[in-house]
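Quick one:
INPUT:
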């Protein structure tokens, strides 16, 4: 299926005539660490570049050092597109596409309990006396 954007679509996505793509440089899964802010490398920059190409618009990368700052910029229309996780709070003020990336996540088991690992369902771990740890600020919430 060929993508043929209309002028109305271009104006809706990039009212300034160029596609401003917000890039969260703190997320190494989406942006190659150390890549330049004006010419980032990774999944998010590649997706932004392809969207601009398909829309037939010039591209401008706008760099951020955290997902929260990028989300604020999208909400305030300081950028036209951003690549961040869909969270209920954000979905109240930002329109999200279907996911373009899904990440399998897991939990850690200390080496001493390795033999019990296969018997430890997620429900059992979170309902048990096992200690659990999580950062107070995650990449999707505070950075």
């Amino acid at each position: 299926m060929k993508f043929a954007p209309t002028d109305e679509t271009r104006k809706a996505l990039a009212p300034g005539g160029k596609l401003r793509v917000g890039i969260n440089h703190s997320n190494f899964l989406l942006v190659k660490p150390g890549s330049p802010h004006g010419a980032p490398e990774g999944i998010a920059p590649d997706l932004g570049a392809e969207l601009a190409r398909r829309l037939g618009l010039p591209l401008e990368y706008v760099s951020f050092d955290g997902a929260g700052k990028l989300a604020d910029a999208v909400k305030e229309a300081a950028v036209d597109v951003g690549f961040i996780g869909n969270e209920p709070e954000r979905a109240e003020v930002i329109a999200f596409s279907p996911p373009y990336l899904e990440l399998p996540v897991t939990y850690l088991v200390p080496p001493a309990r390795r033999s019990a690992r296969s018997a430890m369902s997620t429900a059992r771990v979170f309902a048990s006396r096992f200690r659990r740890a999580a950062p107070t600020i995650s990449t999707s919430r505070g950075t």
